[in-house]
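Posted in: Protein Modeling Q&A

I'm a second-year student putting together a small comparison for a lab meeting, and my supervisor asked me to include a predicted structure for Helix-turn-helix, AraC type protein. I've never done this before, so apologies if this is the wrong subforum. The sequence is pasted below exactly as I got it from our records. If anyone can share the structure token output, I'd also love a short note on what stands out.
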Amino acid sequence: MEDLARILQVQRKLGFKVDAWQIYLAAPAWLRDRVMALDYQDESDDDWEYAETLLTESLHDGGHRGNYFISILEDCNTRHSLEADFGAGKFLRSSQPGNIIVGDEEHVQKLQGTGPYHTFMIFIKKCVVDDFFREATQSDRGLPEHLLRMSFRDEKLSAITKQIFQHFRQPRQVGRRMIKEYLQNQILERLLEVSGKKVDRLTSDDQLQPTRLIDILDFMRAHCTEDLSLNQLAEQANVSRSHFVRLFRQTTGESPKQFLLKLKLERAKQLLATAPHLTVLEIARSCGFYDQSHLARALRQADGITPAVFRSGAFL
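Accepted answer (user: helix_wrangler)
Welcome! Here is the predicted structure, written out as tokens:
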């Protein structure tokens, strides 16, 4: 009874949010019938898709969409292992929660198992993953084949995955795209570490050129209250997104996300000090924070004070 109650609780939580998921909408009826609950998330300008699912059994519709996928088993009600073969060799994933597999949609030879399975699924265009691996390792090889024939456990990858799902369920706010892209980079970097591949380390000479850095920082200052993306900043530097993050940190000592937060806080503090006619909520929203609680939390973490205390000048 406990297992059944847990499954029903997950089913109620997820509901059936599938309006935009073409994979599901195009699937045959027999396959859709195996989906007990589904929460699908995506961004129209993205090469990533996300689905938290509750399935009666494992499934694949035979479609070839050019994706790799990461499947993390959150919970299940079976003792039987999942049988998988993505063209690199057969293997089993046991029913222990936390087990992870990486699959290739174009080469599914077998994906068979009886649930129910509660899983977190991330679908990523193969070119995105392969290009990341090539650049990070300075080689001509993409995702290593051995990742496609193994089940593994990794607490960091599981935690980042759940974090990105939580991010999508938060109210939309300025900075949403950059946070999403930052988490996407973390997922790829963690896959690289799990694969055992060595990252091509930066040297002290690997930095953004001074003139280009000035242009990027000026761009960030001018647009810090907008929903900037890492892709926009990487284009300014004429490098890939993942390489830009590494170069920016190497050059400035902090991530683009951290630097952007500092810019927004500087603007908020300036308004708190010079614009008494504006409420804290108005200042928060004009500086790219979701609400006054969001601003208060960021200011407390950075300076240990609240907007009200800063505005009163009591901290001086």
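A couple of things worth pointing out for your meeting: The longest strand covers residues 114-125. The beta strands are 16-17, 35-42, 48-57, 67-76, 82-85, 90-93, 99-104, 110-112, 114-125, 151-153.
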